[in-house]
Design brief:
By secondary structure, the chain is an alpha/beta fold. It has two domains: 4-177 and 349-366, no CATH class; 186-347, Rossmann fold (3-Layer(aba) Sandwich), CATH 3.40.50. The protein has eleven helices and 17 strands. Helix 8 (275-282) links the parallel strand 15 (260-264) and strand 16 (286-289). Helix 3 (72-83) packs across helix 11 (350-366).
Length: 368
């Protein structure tokens, strides 16, 4: 079995050394990048200067050589930890103030779970669980809930569109976010967006029990639009689907988003929230999405950051009318797209998810 790896994580690779110099190096690299053209005070350096001051937390976040380590949640968490000014990544869990684990560390099909589960059991009272699992009613170790903090991405019952009642368990809602790889536009983009509408789902979702009701219906709708109107559209995937596609930001996928005027998106049927939502919004395209109920700070506002639609028969008729409306009104469409981009870059980047953890730690420790 390959060893557990500590330290920096870039584009699916890991190397040793989790010292604070890595954090400085990452910040220095971003400082040299081209500034954003249309976002005010949302660059990495501006974010870090606005970050709350206080105790420096020593954090152990183990990386490992497996496909699960290249998932969105592990990549995004590590990216935020590396750049956060109040986090010092350490290799030794004994020397850490806190451990952070994602559900990926504990999955049975990940061969490293035999190493991480004993680690979790030994240090549970100083372990922060980041549960990005899909099932809203699934809680890791609910019968032995000694976690320092427990964050959960999927907390909405999509059948009732209500947040699940977890009783006395202190579950903190969280969400995916924008990776730094989506912040800067691709090079050599045209002056205007060449693709009128994109709907980037693979055809197989139309028969999948997880996706057919929402995403499958939206994909069929997009195919119907493509046949009905003389529009430049991208319907279908432009990058590898599944775990391979989720292991990083594919340049083809990124370019398609930034080159689209409108992006059509939908949540999975049984749960709410994915990385694609934030990626689409970060591109500045006008994003159409079904309503979301996740109780997070700085939620999306319909008509300001994105346009919501419903999946009823009448809702799909209204969706078509709204799409045509915004395609013929560049100023309104571009304004909402720009506001959506500004919103997610200001409030929903990887460092903001770590801010949420730091805020919760500060609050918990203040009550000790």
């Amino acid at each position: 079995m390959a060893p557990i790896l500590e330290g920096r994580f870039v584009a699916g690779t890991t190397t040793g050394n989790a010292c604070s110099s890595v954090r400085c190096e990452a910040v220095e690299e971003r400082a040299m990048s081209r500034p954003l053209e249309d976002v005010d005070a949302s660059g990495v350096l501006a974010q870090e200067s606005d970050a709350p001051t206080g105790k420096l937390y020593r954090v152990h976040f183990p990386l490992f050589d497996h496909v699960e380590s290249r998932s969105n949640e592990v990549r995004q968490t590590h990216e935020g930890l590396v750049t956060h000014p109040r986090v010092d990544l350490v290799d030794d869990p004994e020397a850490a103030d806190y451990l952070i684990l994602c559900q990926n560390h504990l999955l049975e099909h990940c061969p490293f779970h035999t190493q991480f589960r004993p680690l979790k059991d030994r240090y549970k009272q100083k372990t922060i669980m980041l549960d990005y699992g899909d099932e809203p009613r699934m809680i890791q170790d609910a019968e032995d809930f000694r976690w320092k903090l427990y964050f959960k991405r999927s907390v909405v019952d999509r059948n009732t569109m209500q947040v699940v009642d977890y009783g006395d368990l202190p579950i903190i809602p969280t969400a995916y976010c924008v990776e730094e790889g989506m912040v800067e536009p691709p090079s050599n983009l045209g002056a205007s967006r060449a693709i009128a509408i994109s709907c980037l789902f693979e055809d197989s979702i139309q028969t999948s029990w997880v996706f057919q009701r929402a995403r499958g219906r939206l994909l069929r709708f997009a195919h119907e639009l493509q046949a009905k109107y003389d529009l430049t559209m991208q319907v279908g995937t432009v990058s590898d689907p599944g775990p391979v596609g989720r292991s990083g930001i594919d340049p083809r996928y990124k370019r398609c988003l930034f080159d689209s005027k409108i992006v059509l998106h939908a949540n999975p049927d049984p749960w709410e929230g994915d990385a694609r939502t934030w990626e689409a919004l970060s591109s500045g395209a006008l994003v159409f999405i079904d309503p979301m109920c996740q109780p997070i700070k700085h939620p999306l506002v319909d008509g300001k950051h994105a346009v919501f639609y419903d999946l009823t028969e009448d809702g799909m008729v209204r969706l078509e009318a709204k799409i045509l409306y915004y395609l013929h009104r560049d100023e309104q469409r571009e304004r909402i797209g720009r506001q959506g981009r500004e919103h997610v870059l200001k409030h929903h980047r990887s460092i903001h998810r770590i801010n949420q953890i730091i805020d919760a730690l500060d609050a918990a420790n203040a009550g000790v």
